[in-house]
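Cross-posting from the modeling subforum.

Setting up a comparison between two proteins and wanted a second pair of eyes on the formatting. Protein 1 (sequence, then structure tokens):
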Amino acid sequence: MASSSAAPRRRLLVIVNPYATSVDRRLRELVIAALQSRYEVRAADTNAPGHARELAAEAIGSGVDAVATLGGDGTLNEAAEALVGTGVPLYPLPGGSQNVFAKLLGLPAEIVDSTARLLEFADNWETHQVDLGRANGRAFTFAAGVGLDASVVEQVDANPSMKARMRQWYYAQRGVTTYIRDYLLRRDQLSARSGSEAIRGDTVLVQNGPDFTYAGDKPISLCSGVTLDCGTMSAAVLHLRSPLRAALTAVRLLTTSGAPTTRAITTMSGMTGLEVIADGGQQLPLQVDGDFAGLHSEVRFTLEPAALTVLAPKRQG
């Protein structure tokens, strides 16, 4: 009598940020239990900034087939940096406040549906490569910024309880306060340079995907013609000295579909590199994938095409 054996289960590391906006112990246990029905699962909790990167790097050496993150875009960002160039695919389980990268990949932004989708991949393993941006060497999967938005991110990250409770509304409240306090009376304080093109402004926002971020379910886009795997990045230089212009720009971003046309935004597209230099050696804030990344007088953006493998179907168009 011939014997048969089931195909071995794929090995999956789930990196959990227990402090993420939407993660608690009960949710962690339910997600892990569900995934164990189709995968050989090892779960590991992060306990400090940078720990997700370490856990993902260790998993590569142990022969893991995929890495999933249960947390926000910051947790995913750390794991992505460790997985660059390895071919080990990354899957984002949504546990943060916005979960932008999951939405850009066309994956569910709700944890039950996302877990179900990951279970489906056990039978239909779909991977593809996406580009990875860097800002002064620090990786970003979908967006980075220098100036106002990074100042807002710094303040929001300093109050995680308010971030969890108010979500995008807390970003909006801190944005208004920060603009009035730190940017309203300033002249253009930086220049963005790519090749022979140089543009002055207050803030530079770089997109490595079709949308810069989300306000709830509403995509916020500043640039057109960029996707996660197009091999180039785009940037928007903001000119915000006029309060009326700044307010109208915010309204357009929240109410229009696609990148708005306004004198407050100058776009730069089709780039593989960008240099942002602050006036007079002053220090400007930087954020990557929604995480504060320190103060810098100069930021060099670069792109690594097809550097990161993701567990997701390739989006068309």
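Protein 2 (same layout):
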Amino acid sequence: MNTTQDNFQRFKLEEGTHFGKSPWILIDQSMINDFARITRDDQFIHVNQHRAEIETKFGGTVAHGFLVLSLASKVAMELLPDYAENSIRINYGFNKVRFTFPVRSNSEVRGSLFLKKVELRKGSELRQTFDLRIEIKGAEKPAIAAEWIILTIFKN
């Protein structure tokens, strides 16, 4: 068996595993403003506290959904073990993403990962499908519910 085959067998045994929850991450107004500047999405609900209080049901500014989603990479780095020195792990995309609850400025979020499926692709690639949840401290609903695909490429 080659390295990819060995790892496929090991990863396959982890299907159904919940990898826990990441540490809390503070999303403050400074982070939101930086993201708005970088993405050029300066809609008032993100950057204008006064207008957001008056004109929305949020009671203040909220983080961009894509800002919260971008934290998935940090969640994966915190939760997933580094299985092999001879591999790289890359974001392959999402089957679905739902932004289920707004994240107010100065809220804390954390993520959790559940491994749903492992597939062998090509000669040296494994595709892992995870359920990703980003929860908000003190909120009843998660900010994000997604099915995330990570591709691991091995140097055989």
